[in-house]
């Protein structure tokens, strides 16, 4: 066992300096992700007992993200990418401070906190996506995302349990509120630590300064449709556990315990899939994740009790990392292909990709809110996730269509790309 561990450590050390720094930066920041993703939603639930406010908060976040992607493209002309990346991480702590300072959770206050968190995520993800594509190649992207997902899943064991226990150890509304304030302060300190690690990297800004385009290669439009379906579920994957557990399982302690069940096994499985799988395995991995998510969502909809929620969370622990592990390398590989064909910088596609995600996020959030206000809260919680999970199964067929399109590009004699490169691109999309 020790020998295998040393082998894996040596494999990590064999990667480039920027690869290692990027992973370590994201590892430190991952310590606050469960707080941002889960316990902010739980805080809104505790103080308002209104799931619609959680969705509105999430919608505010997702509105701020594409706006900040666009702003970030402008800022990259004047500021080093490390500064922008670090600012994005630290703004997440600022957003939580705004939330904790609200005397009452009005829609205006929730919207302000959500937009600020959206600014944080926009700066974080736009720069992180560019650094991922510039730091990795198609051969080590499965490993990169598998390694990140492994650490994220391990952290998902410890952090929710520790925070849930900490909040539950307090008695009375004021003490519980103070517990959230302490957690917010810790989050801010951790984001500062992640920023310090980031500055150890030798990251360079995109060379091309034009990022906004309105016409793209047909293969890119197919990826945008895939991004829309991914966006459909993103809001629910973040907030659904908090809303369901708070309504059905009870308090934050149950939230932490439920999130921790099975996470260790999931982490080990995801790491080895990322470490040893080939680019040709990505669609299989993607399909398994989508199917597990659909099964969990349907079980929750049919049972809608404590057992159903636990089953949903267990399957979600496997489904989400599997989907991400496959999706992001496919996205980056398509960017590799179309950026060479159209002779554009990669950041232009990272920026445009967010429009597809936002369209899906908006549709997903509106689906929940329509069911919430026209039928009932329980109906929305019970069936909205299942509807969206089943719709997401279309992503399997869209992925296959992307593969077919890639094969056609490879067979076109008039293509400007060398035949060897395009054949490899089509194969890697399988």
Automatic annotation (TrEMBL):
Keyword Transmembrane helix: yes
SUPFAM superfamilies recorded: MFS general substrate transporter
Keywords annotated in UniProt: Membrane, Transmembrane, Transmembrane helix
Source organism, top-level taxon: Bacteria
Gene3D superfamilies registered for this protein in UniProt: MFS general substrate transporter like domains
Transmembrane segments: 21-44, 56-76, 83-101, 107-125, 145-167, 179-199, 219-248, 254-273, 285-303, 309-328, 349-373, 379-398
Protein name: MFS transporter
Organism the protein comes from: Flavobacterium rhizosphaerae
């Amino acid at each position: 066992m020790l020998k295998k561990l040393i082998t894996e450590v040596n494999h990590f050390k064999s990667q480039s300096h920027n690869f290692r720094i990027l992973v370590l930066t994201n590892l430190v920041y991952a310590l606050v992700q469960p707080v941002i993703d889960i316990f902010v939603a739980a805080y809104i639930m505790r103080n308002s007992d209104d799931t619609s406010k959680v969705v509105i908060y999430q919608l505010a976040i997702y509105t701020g993200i594409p706006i900040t992607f666009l702003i970030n493209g402008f800022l990259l002309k004047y500021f080093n990418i490390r500064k922008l990346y670090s600012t994005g991480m630290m703004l997440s702590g600022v957003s939580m401070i705004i939330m904790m300072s609200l005397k009452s959770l009005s829609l205006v206050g929730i919207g302000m906190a959500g937009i600020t968190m959206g600014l944080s995520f926009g700066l974080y993800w736009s720069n992180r996506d560019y650094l991922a594509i510039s730091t990795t190649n198609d051969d080590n992207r499965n490993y990169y995302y598998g390694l990140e997902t492994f650490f994220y899943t391990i952290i998902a064991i410890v952090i929710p349990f520790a925070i849930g226990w900490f909040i539950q150890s307090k008695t009375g509304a004021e003490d519980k509120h103070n517990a959230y304030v302490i957690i917010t302060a810790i989050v801010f300190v951790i984001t500062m630590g992640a920023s310090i690690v980031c500055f150890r990297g030798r990251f360079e800004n995109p060379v091309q300064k034009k990022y906004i385009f309105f016409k793209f290669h047909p293969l890119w439009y197919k990826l945008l449709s895939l991004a829309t379906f991914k966006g459909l579920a993103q809001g629910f994957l973040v907030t659904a556990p908090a809303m369901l557990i708070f309504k059905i399982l009870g308090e934050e302690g149950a939230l932490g315990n439920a999130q921790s069940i099975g996470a260790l096994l999931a982490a080990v499985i995801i790491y080895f899939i990322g470490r040893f799988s080939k680019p040709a395995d990505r669609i299989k991995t993607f399909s398994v994740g989508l199917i597990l998510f659909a099964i969990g969502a349907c079980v929750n909809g049919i049972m809608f009790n404590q057992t159903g929620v636990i089953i949903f969370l267990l399957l979600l622990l496997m489904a989400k990392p599997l989907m991400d592990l496959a999706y992001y390398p496919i996205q980056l590989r398509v960017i590799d292909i179309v950026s060479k064909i159209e002779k554009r910088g990669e950041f232009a596609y990272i920026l445009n990709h967010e429009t597809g995600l936002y369209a899906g996020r908006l549709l997903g959030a509106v689906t929940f809110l329509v069911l919430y206000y026209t039928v009932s809260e329980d109906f929305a919680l019970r069936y909205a996730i299942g509807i969206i999970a089943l719709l997401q199964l279309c992503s399997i067929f869209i992925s296959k269509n992307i593969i077919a399109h890639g094969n056609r590009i490879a067979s076109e004699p008039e293509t400007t790309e060398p035949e060897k490169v395009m054949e490899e691109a089509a194969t890697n999309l399988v």
